[in-house]
């Protein structure tokens, strides 16, 4: 597998969070005096991936994209699409993708709370949702991207037997996600220890937790 020398791509200063308006669907906002990532109903895959095919894998909240980029190298036969609300992170990932000439990976500047209407029903093998911003203060719960609506979209885009992979280092977030999943009744979920976890690539935040000895929870949910 090709090895990327990431030191060629100096990281800009990237804020922890985006403007709070970006964590809410565009249709909820009145007026237009703010900058919001494009919202679209369809995408032309030939503009996005070299082979012109749709993605098989999606990474919601891909952050600085280590998992996204490395997975594209690990599985060159599949297209992987990431969504990220912080524009500077997307621009940095784009720089790596262009610099390395990677044909099967793209990070979109997009707020996932607007749904996934441009992804065909039943077309995705795996959805990754790793270390979402926890938004632990009650008044910030509504900023969480994981919701009944988001889960319904994930259910729709997944193949029959497709899988949703979750990781978090915040027990309250795990509990919240469990409630949403249980309510939907559409997934069968299992906590997964490191021996059973079948992904070889690590995310930026997963590496961080491992380095700092911060425990985290992994779960795999299969579409019923
Ligand atoms: C803690 S980081 C984890 C990044 C990466 N998944 C990892 O494991 O290293 C969570 C990411 O989700 C992004 N995010 C939060 N809400 C989002 C939304 N509505 N749409 C897209 N990305 C979002 C944040 O900007 C942030 O980069």
Low-confidence stretches: none
Which class of secondary structure composition applies to the elements?
Answer: alpha/beta
Q: What form results from the Cα inertia axes? A: globular
Which compounds are bound in this model? S-adenosylmethionine
What would your notes on this structure say?
By secondary structure, this protein is of the alpha/beta class. 25% of the residues lie in helices and 20% in strands. It contains five helices and seven strands. The protein has helices at 66-74, 87-100, 148-157, 171-184, 204-212; strands at residues 57-60, 80-84, 105-109, 124-130, 158-168, 187-191, 217-223. β4, α3 (148-157) and β5 form a beta-alpha-beta unit. Bound molecules: S-adenosylmethionine. S-adenosylmethionine (SAM) is lined by residues 18, 23, 61-63, 83-86, 89, 111-113, 130-133, 145, 203-206.
Q: What would the keywords be for this entry?
A:
single chain, 224 residues, alpha/beta, 7-stranded mixed sheet, 5 helices, 25% helix, globular, binds S-adenosylmethionine
Strand and helix map with partners:
Layout: E1 57-60, H1 66-74, E2 80-84, H2 87-100, E3 105-109, E4 124-130, H3 148-157, E5 158-168, H4 171-184, E6 187-191, H5 204-212, E7 217-223
Parallel strand pairs: 1-2, 1-4, 2-3, 4-5
Antiparallel strand pairs: 5-7, 6-7
Bound molecules: S-adenosylmethionine.
S-adenosylmethionine binds next to strand 2 and helix 5.
């Amino acid at each position: 597998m090709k090895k990327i020398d990431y030191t060629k791509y100096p990281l800009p200063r990237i804020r922890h969070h985006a403007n709070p308006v970006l964590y809410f669907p565009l249709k909820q906002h009145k007026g237009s005096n703010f900058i919001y990532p494009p919202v679209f109903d369809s995408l032309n895959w030939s503009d996005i991936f070299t082979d012109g095919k749709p993605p098989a894998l999606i990474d919601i909240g891909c952050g600085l994209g280590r998992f996204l980029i490395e997975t594209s190298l690990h599985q060159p036969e599949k297209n992987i699409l990431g969504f990220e609300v912080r524009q500077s992170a997307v621009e940095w990932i784009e720089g790596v993708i262009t610099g390395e000439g990677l044909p099967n990976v793209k990070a979109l500047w997009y707020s996932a709370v607007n749904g996934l209407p441009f992804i065909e029903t039943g077309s995705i093998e795996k959805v990754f949702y790793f270390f979402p911003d926890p938004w632990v203060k009650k008044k910030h719960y509504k900023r969480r991207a994981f919701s009944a609506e988001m889960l319904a979209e994930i259910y729709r885009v997944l193949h029959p037997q497709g899988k949703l992979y979750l990781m978090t280092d915040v027990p309250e977030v795990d509990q919240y996600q469990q409630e949403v999943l249980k309510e939907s009744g559409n997934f069968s979920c299992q906590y997964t220890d490191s021996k059973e976890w079948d992904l070889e690539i690590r995310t930026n935040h997963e590496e961080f937790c491992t380095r700092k000895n911060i425990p985290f929870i992994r779960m795999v949910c299969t579409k019923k």
